[in-house]
Amino acid sequence: MAERERSIHEMLKDTPSMNDTCGAVHTGTEGSGIGMNMVISSSSHSIGGAAAGGGIGPPNSLPLRNHSAPTTPMSPMTSTSTPGNGVLTSADGSGSLIRTSASKIDSLKNWSISTYKCTRQLMLEKLGKSQRTVDSELEAQIEQLRETQRKYLSILRLTRAFSSHFQHVVVTQHALADSFADLAQKNPELQKEFTCNSETQRNLTKNGELLLNALNFFMSSVNTLCNKTIDDTLLTIRQYETARIEFDAYRMDLENTKPELTQTAAGTATALEESQRSYAQHKEQYEKLRADVAVKMQFLDENRIKVMHKQLILLHNAIAAYFSGNAMALESTIKQFNIKLKSPNAVTGSWLEQ
C-alpha cells in the first residue's frame, strides 16, 4: 500500500503544472462540437508529447487570435463624416434625406413666422393701431369692379328667371297648337277655327324658340364675362391684397427693429439686415402685383364694354322684334349674331346621328 502511494506521488511530480499548460494555449475557435473535439484531442497529444520530451510548448493546432482588438461584422452601409457641416453621409443617400428634412423644417418655420406677422397686422388694422398702405385710385377702381360684377350677376339671375318662365310659355303654346290641330280633325263643323288657332300657336312657338336662343346666347356671354373674365382679374386683386398685408407687416417689423439699435447688442445689426432684406423683397412683390392689377383692369374694362355692347343690342332687337310680331326682324337678328338655333322641344339624337 505504501509503495502504491509513493508511486502516485512520483507520477504527480512528473506531470506538468496547470499554470504552464494554460499559458501555452491563447484561445480557441468558437465553433461546433466537432471543432471542440479536434482542439481537445490536439491539445492532449501536445501535452503527451511534451511530457514525454520533458518540456511543454504551445500547441500548433490551435489558431491564435488577438483579444485586444475584436473584429466586428462589416455593415453594408459605410458612413463617413463630413468635416464641413458635420452631417453624416452614407452610400444610400441618407445625408441628402437629412438635408431635405432640414429644408422642409426651415420652410415651415418661415411660413409660420410670415403667417403670424400677417395675422398680427390684420388685427392691428382692424383695431386701428397700425397704418395700412393705401392706393386711393386703384382701390376705388377695384371697388367699382366688384360692384359691376354684382350688378351683372343680378342681371344674369333675372334673365335666367325670365328665360325659364318664357320657356314654359313656349312649351305650353306648342301643346296648345297640337290640341287645336287634333280638335280640327275631330270637329268638322269647327275645323276652320281650330286650324286657324293651331297655326297661330305654331307661329308663336317658332318665334318663341328664336327668342329663347337669343336669350341663351346672351346669358352664356354674360356668364363667361362675370364668372371667368372678371373672376380672373379678381384673383389677381386678391393676390395683390395679400401682398399688401405682407408688405405692411414687414414694414412695421422694420420700424420696430430700428429703435433697438440704441442697445448696441451683438445680434441687433443682423436682425436689422434681415428685416431690411425681407422688407425690400415684399415691397418689390407688392409693386409688381399692383402694376399687374392696373394692366388687367384696363384690359378688362375694354373687353367688358365690347362684349356688353354686342349683347345688349342683341337682347334689345330680339325682344323688340318678338313682341312687335316682326318675325322677319327676329330671324334677321339671329342671323346677324350667328346664333345656333336650338329648339326647346327637340330631342337630342344619338352620337351615330351626330
TrEMBL record:
<dbReference type="InterPro" id="IPR027267">
    <property type="entry name" value="AH/BAR_dom_sf"/>
</dbReference>
<dbReference type="GO" id="GO:0045887">
    <property type="term" value="P:positive regulation of synaptic assembly at neuromuscular junction"/>
</dbReference>
<keyword id="KW-0597">Phosphoprotein</keyword>
<dbReference type="GO" id="GO:0000139">
    <property type="term" value="C:Golgi membrane"/>
</dbReference>
<dbReference type="InterPro" id="IPR010504">
    <property type="entry name" value="AH_dom"/>
</dbReference>
<protein>
    <recommendedName>
        <fullName>AH domain-containing protein</fullName>
    </recommendedName>
</protein>
<dbReference type="Pfam" id="PF06456">
    <property type="entry name" value="Arfaptin"/>
</dbReference>
<dbReference type="GO" id="GO:0048149">
    <property type="term" value="P:behavioral response to ethanol"/>
</dbReference>
<dbReference type="GO" id="GO:0006886">
    <property type="term" value="P:intracellular protein transport"/>
</dbReference>
<feature type="domain" description="AH">
    <location>
        <begin position="133"/>
        <end position="335"/>
    </location>
</feature>
<dbReference type="GO" id="GO:0005829">
    <property type="term" value="C:cytosol"/>
</dbReference>
<dbReference type="GO" id="GO:0032588">
    <property type="term" value="C:trans-Golgi network membrane"/>
</dbReference>
<dbReference type="GO" id="GO:0034452">
    <property type="term" value="F:dynactin binding"/>
</dbReference>
<dbReference type="GO" id="GO:0070273">
    <property type="term" value="F:phosphatidylinositol-4-phosphate binding"/>
</dbReference>
<keyword id="KW-0333">Golgi apparatus</keyword>
<dbReference type="GO" id="GO:0019904">
    <property type="term" value="F:protein domain specific binding"/>
</dbReference>
<dbReference type="GO" id="GO:0034315">
    <property type="term" value="P:regulation of Arp2/3 complex-mediated actin nucleation"/>
</dbReference>
<dbReference type="InterPro" id="IPR030798">
    <property type="entry name" value="Arfaptin_fam"/>
</dbReference>
<keyword id="KW-0472">Membrane</keyword>
